[in-house]
Amino acid sequence: MPENIVVTTHEGFIATVQLNRPKVLNALNLELMVELVEALETLDANPDVRCIVIHGSERAFAAGADITEMAAASPTEMLQRDQFTRWDRIRRVKTPLIAAVSGVALGGGCELVMICDMIVASETARFGQPEINIGVMPGAGGTQRLTRAVGKALAMEMVLTGRMITAEEAKAGGLINMIVPVEFYLESAMKLAREVAARPPIAVRLAKESVLKSFDTTVNDGLEFERKNFYLLFDTDDMKEGMAAFLEKRKPEWKGR
User: Fold this and answer.
1) pTM for the whole structure
2) How would you label 104-127 residue by residue, b for 16+ Cβ within 10 Å and e otherwise?
3) Rounded CA gap, 98 and 114, in Å?
4) Which of 150, 197, 211, 213 is least crowded, fewest Cβ atoms below 10 Å from its Cβ?
5) Count of alpha carbons within 13 Å of 72, Cβ hemisphere only?
6) Considering only CA atoms, which of 109, 112, 98 is closest in space to residue 27?
7) Measured in whole angstroms, how far is the alpha carbon of residue 113 from the centre of its chain?
8) Given this model, what pLDDT does residue 69 score?
């Protein structure tokens, strides 16, 4: 039996999704992307999943798109394939996503990392958008998310030269949350996921939505969006439980409603 190219586990309130094409460093072919999106959407619809960790292996998160599927394609074929709609579906996942990165995260791999909400990297992690070296450019959000994360100068250098950056450079540039020894990278991501999952799930989802809104709207519209989400939470049982627990000096028990 062939191995699953996307492996999903679920324990407690945490789910993990592993990219599993080790012979090609988890290159993102169409089949993998279809299964990844389906796995994420299924987990997102499960109220018992409060945080999702996406990872590859110690050697590679993902080395990029599978070039064998694109090398002979015409513009019309690429348009009809419409592969980037799957990335839009990942962006609409409401459950917080944490990328656990070891080894290379290049091209589409780096773009998948950046679509996640937080990033834990091992000391061996390397990030890059090397598409320029094969005659194209990032197409799944690399020019936009990378620039917002690290600024124009470093993004231009990475996109126009294809240079990879180290975990230390990524941390200094604001791309990732933390760097840990390689043997602890997945464990550290799971620890962060547990911290998120220990918070009231509706508030977490609306807070994520509000932070992401800041990237595609004006400050005034973003503030209005934030305010509406804030008011909406006053209709939840978790809000009442959280404030009661604070006043009674006890630990809250979140129900997710």
Assistant:
1) 0.94
2) bbbbbbbbbbbbbbbbbbbebbbb
3) 10
4) 211
5) 2
6) 109
7) 5
8) 77
Q: Give the strands of the sheet with 104-106, arranged side by side.
A: 60-62, 104-106, 126-128, 165-166
Cα–Cα distance, 134 to 136 (Å, whole number):
6
Strands (E), the chain: 6-11, 14-19, 51-55, 60-62, 97-101, 104-106, 118-122, 126-128, 165-166, 178-180
Q: What is the pLDDT of residues 37-83, one digit of tens each?
A: 999 999 999 999 999 999 999 999 999 887 877 777 788 887 777 77
List, by residue number, the catalytic residues: 65, 108, 111, 131
- Identity of the amino acid at 123: E
10 Å CB burial of residue 199 (0-12, 13-18, 19+) is middle
In the block, residue with structure tokens 């990378």:
146
Taking alpha carbons only, the member of 210, 240, 236, 232 closest to residue 223 is 210
Q: What are phi and psi of 65, to 5 degrees?
A: -70, 155
Express each pLDDT in 142-157 by its tens digit: 999 999 999 999 999 9
Enumerate the β-bridge partners of residue 52.
15, 97
Distances (CA, A) of 113 to 1, 61, 185, 190: 30, 9, 14, 16
Domains of the chain: residue spans and CATH: 6-197 (3.90.226.10), 201-247 (1.10.12)
Q: What amino acid is encoded at 112 in this protein? A: L
